[in-house]
């Protein structure tokens, strides 16, 4: 029977904030969220440690940018931290995974993080990428032991494989400049509308993004396209048109029952010529 070796417990240490480099984050810091955390820290202190890695004589932040900002807001000069041994790529993966697991992520944020995770994962494991770099027969023979990006992400983060593929497709199909323009708008929170945007050409995507910035009250991509193209608004069908449509779809038995209901005793006239 194979026994799995226990993982070593990670110790929490105290590190001066001045010794920690935050660096460029994949997700911007929300000052309002940091202020809420700071208020909690003033009453209860720092309850959750940040994660860092050692780089020379300093530390590089992996996870916990909002906690770092909150500590600064409260005037606390040191942070409880876990020092993780990780390469730069592995650290990026840890940062991405921490963000993906957050409940408040919008569909656009989740698409962005999953797409970035795919980039980092396939850089760490190029043999899993379609047409990836396989420099030896040995690597080629072992490639099946390394799960694909979708499989690995689904297992680690508990996400559905279809959701992962759809999210990555949203990110790759929407132009970079368009993603930046819509990041803080209503459409970032709607997966269905993001999919509708992704199906459009780059030029139309840019026009839609500009429309959203100017007229945020219109919250439907199809309606925005109609207005951009200047097409007349389709009138809703009248009651008579609805009845005629239903009559055309009904079978003979249903027509007989309906006619008997509205005009009992009259012969059925279903529009067909008598034999």
UniProtKB/TrEMBL annotation:
Pfam families tied to this protein = ParB_N
- Segments forming domain ParB-like N-terminal: 13-100
Q: Which domain of life is it from?
A: Bacteria
Q: What is this protein called?
A: ParB family chromosome partitioning protein
Q: Name one GO biological process term.
A: chromosome segregation
Q: Which PANTHER family match?
A: CHROMOSOME-PARTITIONING PROTEIN PARB-RELATED
Show the InterPro entries listed in the entry.
Answer: Chromosome_partition/occlusion, ParB/Sulfiredoxin_sf, ParB_N
Query: SMART domains under this entry?
Result: ParB (SM00470)
Residue stretches in coiled coil: none
| One Gene Ontology term, aspect cellular component | chromosome
Lineage, please? Bacteria, Pseudomonadati, Pseudomonadota, Alphaproteobacteria, Acetobacterales
């Amino acid at each position: 029977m194979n026994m799995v070796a226990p993982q070593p417990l990670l110790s929490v240490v105290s590190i001066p904030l001045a010794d920690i480099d935050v660096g460029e984050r994949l997700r911007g810091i929300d000052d309002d969220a940091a202020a809420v955390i700071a208020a909690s820290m003033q009453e209860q202190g720092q309850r959750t440690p940040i994660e860092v890695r050692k780089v020379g004589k300093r530390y590089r932040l992996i996870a916990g940018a909002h906690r770092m900002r909150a500590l600064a807001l409260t005037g606390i000069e040191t942070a409880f931290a876990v020092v993780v041994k990780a390469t730069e790529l592995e650290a990026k993966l840890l940062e991405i995974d921490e963000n993906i697991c957050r409940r408040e992520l919008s569909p656009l944020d989740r698409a962005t993080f999953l797409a970035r995770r795919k980039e980092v994962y396939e850089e760490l494991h190029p043999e899993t990428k379609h047409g990836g770099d396989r420099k030896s027969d040995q690597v080629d023979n072992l490639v099946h032991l390394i799960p694909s990006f979708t499989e690995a992400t689904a297992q680690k983060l508990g996400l559905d494989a279809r959701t992962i593929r759809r999210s990555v497709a949203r990110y790759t199909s929407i132009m970079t400049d368009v993603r930046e323009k819509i990041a803080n708008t209503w459409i970032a929170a709607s997966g269905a509308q993001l999919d509708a945007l992704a199906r459009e050409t780059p030029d139309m995507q840019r026009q839609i993004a500009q429309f959203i910035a100017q007229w945020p009250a219109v919250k439907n991509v199809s309606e925005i396209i109609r207005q951009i193209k200047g097409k007349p608004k389709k009138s809703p069908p009248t009651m008579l048109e609805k009845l005629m449509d239903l009559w055309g779809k009904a079978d003979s038995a249903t027509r007989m029952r309906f006619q008997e209901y509205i005009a009992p005793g009259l012969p059925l006239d279903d529009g067909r010529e008598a034999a």
